[in-house]
Amino acid sequence: MMRLFINSLAASAGGGLTYIRNVIPHLAARPGLDVVVALAPGLREEFRAFTNVEFQEIDVSPMRRFWYEQTSMPGRIRQCGADVLLSTGNFAIRSSPVPQILLSRNSVYTSADFYRDLRSRREYKIWLDTKFRGAMAKKSIRWANVTVAPSEAFAAELRRWTGKLVRTIHHGFDPDAFFQNSAALSADVEHKLQSAEGALKLLFVSHYNYYRNFETLLRALPLLRKAVGRPVKLLLTCELAAEKTSGGYNPTAAAALVKELGISDMVVELGTVPYQRLHQLYRKADIYVTPAYTETFAHPLVEAMASGLPVVASDLAVHREICGDAAVYFPRFSPETLSESVARLAASPETANRMASFGLERSRQFSWAAHVDSILALAQDLAGTTKRS
C-alpha cells in the first residue's frame, strides 16, 4: 500500500484547478493507494463524494503560500506517513521528507514575450514577482527527484532553462466526465448568447491575463467584420473589468481597445462559466480560437476538439503538439493572419468539418487514466528511496 501526499494549494483557477478536478477521481478509484490532498478551503465541497481520500484544508494566502510550503508542509507530510509527495503547483518543497515529483506547468517564467509584455505595460511589480517566482521554479526543478511537464515542447524548454532532466507526461481528457453534466447554462449566460444567434461564433475560454494575448484577438475582429459576410461574435468566458479579474492583471487597456476599435457589438463577455457546464458552451460555438503567446498544454484545446470544433491557434510548438492537423496556425502577434485564417475556415465548411473530425480523433489520444498510470508508476519507483535525487 502506497501513501501519496498531493500538495495542490496552488490550485485556484485555470489549469491547476482543472488538473485536480480530473486527477482526484482517478486516484480515488485505484486499489492499494492511500491519497492525502492539501487544498485551499472551499474546494473540499467539490470532492465530497470521495470519502476514501483524506483532504486537508489549509487557509493560507497566495502571498504566504510558498513560505508555508517550505516551513510547515514537511511536518504535515511526515505526520500523515506519506511515501511520496506530488507537488502540483510549479514549486517543490526544498526539504521534503519523502521523494518528490514536481509538476511544472507555468511557461511565463521562461517566456521572453511575457517579460517584454510586462515592460511595455509598465507592470514592473508583476515583472519582479515573476522573476522571483521563476528563480524559485528553477530551483524547484533541482530540489525535486523527478520533474514532469505536460507537453514535450514545454519539457524541452525546461531542459534548456535548467540543464536538468524533465519528463513529459501529457495531461489528459475524460469525455465521459466532461460531457456528463446536463444542467443548463445560467439564465444570464443564455441571455447573452441570444445576441449571437445567426452570427459566426468564435469561442475563447480563458480568464483575462496578459499571456493569453487578448489584444491580438480583439484587433482581428474589425478585420473579420470586413472579411466575413455575416455578423461575427467573440464569446469570452471572462469580463474585461478590473473587479472581475484576478491574478493582478489589469484588463482596462483591453476594455478600452474594444471601444477604440468599435467592436463592442462583437464581443460577448459571458463571465465565468462553471467547468461542469463548459461543454454546452463549446457546442454553441463554430470555431475555437486562441492567440496565446506562451502555453504549456492548453486544456481548452482538447475540450474544443472533443466538442467537434475546428481550432485556430497561435503558432506555438505546444499548440502544434496538442492539435496536430486539427488546427490552423497563425503568427502569435498577427491579427491580420488570425483574421484571414478564421475567414478562410468560415468560408469552407468542408475544411471545417474535416478539421473537426481530425480534432475528435486527436482528443481521444489524451487520457487522464493514462496520465495517472504514469504518475503512479513514477511514484512507485520513488517510494522507499532516499528523499533527495
List the helices and strands and how they pair.
Elements: E1 2-7, H1 14-28, E2 33-39, E3 54-57, H2 62-71, H3 73-79, E4 84-87, E5 100-103, H4 112-120, H5 124-143, E6 146-149, H6 152-162, E7 167-168, H7 175-179, H8 187-194, E8 200-204, H9 214-227, E9 232-236, H10 252-261, E10 267-269, H11 278-282, E11 287-290, H12 299-306, E12 311-314, H13 317-323, E13 327-330, H14 335-346, H15 349-363, H16 368-382
Parallel strand pairs: 1-2, 1-4, 2-3, 4-5, 5-6, 6-7, 8-9, 8-11, 9-10, 11-12, 12-13
Helix pairs in contact: 1-16, 9-10, 9-14, 12-15
Please list the strands of the largest sheet in the order they lie side by side. 3-2-1-4-5-6-7
Q: What is Rg?
A: 21 Å
- Please, what is the oligomeric state? single chain
Domains counted in the coordinates: how many? 2
CATH architecture of the largest domain: 3-Layer(aba) Sandwich
Q: What amount of the residues lies in strands?
A: 5-15%
Count of alpha and pi helical runs: 16
